[in-house]
Design goal:
Blueprint lengths: L1 H31 L2 H13 L2 H16 L19 E2 L19 E2 L2 E2 L4 H12 L9 H14 L2 H6 L6 E2 L1 H15 L3 H18 L1 E4 L2 E4 L9 E2 L12 E2 L8 E3 L17 E3 L8 E5 L4 E5 L6 H31 L5 H16 L26 E7 L2 E10 L5 E7 L2 H11 L14 H11 L5 H20 L6 H18 L10 H36 L2 H33 L6 H6 L3 H11 L9 H6 L1 H6 L7
Parallel strand pairs: 9-10
Antiparallel strand pairs: 1-5, 2-3, 2-4, 5-6, 7-8, 9-11, 11-12, 13-14, 14-15
The structure holds a DNA duplex (22 and 22 nucleotides).
Length: about 625
DNA sequence: CCTGAGACTTGGAAGAATTTTG
DNA sequence: CAAAATTCTTCCAAGTCTCAGG
């Protein structure tokens, strides 16, 4: 309680202090708004109903006024995460609604009425019918196995072959249903939205140390079929419905303890203030825990995030020493040390993940640095004019392929040859190393250092360097944003953050090209018209003609700018085809670097961070000025 | 040291909402 | 204004890493 008080007082005080600052900021950002935008807003004003607008405005006000600036408070003692935690417990997935009687399941061509539980599981499969998953044998087998377990003995006797099961009518029912939902009237949609807002309002927040904080995932996961990524041995297995009896609640002793749904009990209620989760349950596929935790905008998550970047910044001070040491260790007499040094080199240079061991047969076969196998690399003494080239080809996290050809130092190359000698393709490359050995070593080099810190550090430092190299202060905002995206992209490539090419990519690229061509045409026409106007002015020398010249000049300039913008867009799009920027932006790049860049070059923060991102990075937005250096 | 449990971060895809376009 | 395109949000799987206990 004492702590809480102190926090509150501090908050109040700081609020007053910041009021001035905020005012200034607001003015500034208002001014910075483009005229276009203001105009749009104005034109909207007329149509939109006043009530709505007012409500929105108040909403916005509240947002800025009530924010908890936890980063201005003193830290809690080690290991204690909160002193007060109150919430409503998870929101449970809706119960199964039976199919209407005219929607039937067919076995061997004949309609078959299923028991409720069996029918529910059948709908899981039916819903996925046009997904590639259902064509895979493992998926089908796992599903059928688990499905049969839940059948009545009578059903078990009849349903013996998945190929004889016809789910198409059920499938169609759900397709139609989702179409119908899309086609609802505005009012009906509004009503649905209000209902979900109400649930969000009730279950989506908790009270943490006197502050209302948003929860990240307040709903239990609905039952369904497990979809792993890549070649997952468990794909298609039945994910069971979570019941209150499965759920452990965590909250503070003196808080209002959440009520389980009527007729039910919690598995357990505990009061553990050394952890950050509000509720947990064990998931039946991998037998691991799942948690309900806070939203990234919360203090608990934000503080940790901030701390992560501070650790990475400390690495910056010692990284030269560490690099010198692992280079020296390449020549160590101890095999163990050599392997450690080469692995660390990969982690540092290529931003590979640590690579924990995984239980065989339980998950897809993926690897990281320490778990690389001989079959994952090829050594080329010479390749495409480069020496000592290592060709990596393996599946990493989420079964995303890592493919890279890297020219490495001679000593690394020699070591790799040594590590691979007399081994089978399926043998571990670093047979004397694992993540715990590596991390123990790293911890001894710097407090808080582990393998993943290198990824954070290299990502952030790369962004900072790239921004420095690419940004041209003469550019307009669009040009600067292209530079930002390119810097971001360099990081995403480093971290191997890939996405599948969007389905609409080719088409939208074509459309853009058409637009560019049309704009070029316009520019040419405008040039001709300007010429004509100039000639006319030459002849007549009258004021009207002069004004006309000015007008045409302006038009041309505007068109040229628009063309440039389109070209920038096209470049950006093409370069981004298979790169996913989101993960690095959200998890690896110290937000203060981006914010400092925005401030320095007069780019509004909203251009690089959307609302959610600004909420997550509120701490950074508040504390970073344009001089921030990572 | 090794092992497994536990807690927490990181990841792309899919679905929903919003904006742009024709 | 509807359809298409784009952006944002949700979903939940899959990593990392620490710690307790043998």
């Amino acid at each position: 309680p004492r702590k809480e008080k102190r926090g509150k007082i501090k908050e109040k005080k700081s609020k007053e202090e910041k009021k001035e600052k905020r005012k200034k900021n607001k003015k500034k950002s208002d001014e910075e708004e483009t005229p276009q935008k203001t105009q749009k807003r104005k034109s909207k004003e007329g149509e939109e109903n006043n009530n709505n607008k007012k409500a929105k405005k108040e909403d916005k006000k509240e947002e800025t006024e009530n924010k908890w600036k936890w980063w201005e408070e003193e830290k809690k003692e080690d290991g204690v995460k909160w002193t007060q935690l109150e919430h409503r417990g998870p929101y449970f997935a809706p119960l199964y609604e039976p199919l209407p009687d005219d929607v039937q399941f067919y076995y061997d061509g004949k309609p078959l009425k299923l028991s409720l539980a069996t029918e529910e599981i059948a709908t899981f499969y039916a819903k996925m019918l046009d997904h590639e998953y259902t064509t895979k044998e493992i998926f089908q087998n796992n599903f059928f196995n688990d499905w049969r377990k839940e059948m009545t003995s009578k059903e078990q006797k009849i349903i013996k072959d998945l190929d004889k099961c016809d789910f198409r009518e059920i499938h169609k029912y759900f397709v139609d249903k989702s179409e119908a939902r899309k086609a609802l009237s505005k009012e009906e949609k509004q009503k649905l939205k209000e209902e979900s807002d109400k649930i969000q309002e009730e279950y989506g927040y908790c009270i943490l140390d006197g502050h209302r904080e948003k929860i990240g995932n307040f709903k239990t996961e609905p039952p369904g079929l497990f979809r792993g990524r890549g070649d997952h041995p468990k794909m298609g297995m039945l994910k069971k419905r979570i019941m209150p009896e499965d759920v452990v609640i965590n909250c503070s002793k003196d808080s209002k303890i959440p009520e389980p749904p009527e007729g039910h009990k919690w598995k357990e209620v505990r009061f553990d203030n050394t952890v950050t989760w509000l509720a947990s349950w064990t998931e039946n596929i991998q037998n691991t825990l799942k948690y309900i935790m806070l939203n990234p905008s919360s203090k608990l998550k934000g503080e940790k995030d901030w701390q992560k970047y501070e650790v990475a910044r400390r690495l910056k001070d010692v990284v030269h020493k560490i690099r010198a040491q692992y280079r020296a260790d390449w020549k160590s007499k101890e095999m163990k040390k050599r392997q450690r040094a080469v692995a660390l080199y990969f982690i540092d240079k290529l931003a590979l993940r640590a690579g924990n061991e995984k239980e065989e047969g339980e998950t897809a076969d993926t690897v990281g640095c320490c778990s690389l196998r001989v079959e994952h690399i090829k050594l080329h003494p010479n390749l495409d004019g480069q020496e000592h080239v290592v060709e990596f080809d393996f599946l990493g996290k989420d079964s995303i392929r890592y493919y890279n050809k890297v020219s490495v130092e001679k000593m690394v190359f020699k070591n790799l040859q040594l590590f691979m000698k007399n081994k089978n393709p399926a043998d571990d490359l670093f047979d004397r190393l694992n993540t715990s050995i590596l991390n123990r070593h790293l911890q001894s080099l710097m407090d808080g250092l582990s393998a993943k810190v290198f990824r954070t550090y290299n990502a952030s430092i790369t962004l900072q360097e790239q921004l420095k190299a690419l940004t041209n202060s003469e550019d307009n905002v669009a040009g600067k944003l292209l530079s930002y995206n390119r810097a971001n992209r360099a990081v995403a490539i480093l971290c191997n953050h890939q996405r599948s090419t969007p389905k609409t990519f080719e088409k939208s690229m074509q459309n853009l090209q058409i637009k560019i061509d049309a704009k070029k045409q316009q520019v040419e026409e405008a040039q001709q018209e300007l010429k004509k106007a100039e000639d006319e002015f030459e002849d007549t020398k009258d004021a009207k003609a002069e004004a006309n010249v000015e007008k045409k000049k302006k038009l041309l300039k505007r068109l040229e700018e628009q063309l440039a913008k389109l070209n920038v867009q096209a470049t950006d799009k093409e370069e981004n085809k298979q790169i996913a920027l989101g993960t690095s932006k959200l998890n690896y790049l110290d937000p203060r670097i981006s914010i400092a860049w925005c401030k320095k070059f007069g780019v509004p923060i909203e251009k690089i961070y959307n609302k959610t991102q600004r909420e997550k990075f509120a701490w950074a937005i508040d504390m970073a000025d344009e001089d921030f250096e990572f």
